[in-house]
Specification:
It is a single chain. By secondary structure, this protein is of the alpha+beta class. It has one domain: 3-Layer(aba) Sandwich (Aminopeptidase). 29% of the residues lie in helices and 33% in strands. The chain is built from five helices and eight strands; from the N terminus they run E-E-H-H-H-E-E-E-H-E-H-E-E. Strands 1-2-3-4-5-6-8-7 form an eight-stranded mixed beta sheet, with helices on both faces. Strand 7 and strand 8 form a beta hairpin. The longest helix is centred in the C-terminal third of the chain and has 15 residues.
Amino acid sequence: MTNSHTFTTRDGRTVTVRPIKDTDTALLVDLWHHLSDRTKRMRFHTLPTDLPPKEVWRRAAELAHLHPRRQAAVVATIRTDDGEHAVGVARLSRATPDATVAETAVVVRDDFQHVGLGTHLLRTLGDIALAMGITTFEAWVLAENEPVLEIITKFGYPVQMETSRGETHVLLDISEKKGL
């Protein structure tokens, strides 16, 4: 997987992008608590309100522990006086270690949206995917999530989209390295 690197957002903030680690559960819990209800709904398609703390930790632990041949994830972090904080995550998961299609998802903390971070995370994940033999990203995006659908169409890769019942099924062919 890719090494750690820095990225400067369009508004001049520097974040570190690195592979997610098994020990990042607390970072993911912190990120969850810093997402607005709208962002949670856009990412998870439902608003899981009032999840008990144990459930938040359980789900975060599952997301931090990856099956290395089937899954990959990168986390964008910042350093503040009180430590490291996650501001975005991009992940992929495929059904089998040899599958060439992987479901992908990105979430960015509200105060880091619209500054290029989500695009950069998806680009980084694309590089990882290609190295794993993955040629297609698959995603389910709420049809109302126009910023994400716009990002997908601007990559310059062949894309298929089909909308039904408020969700858009996306297939993005990343097999030819272009702008991603």
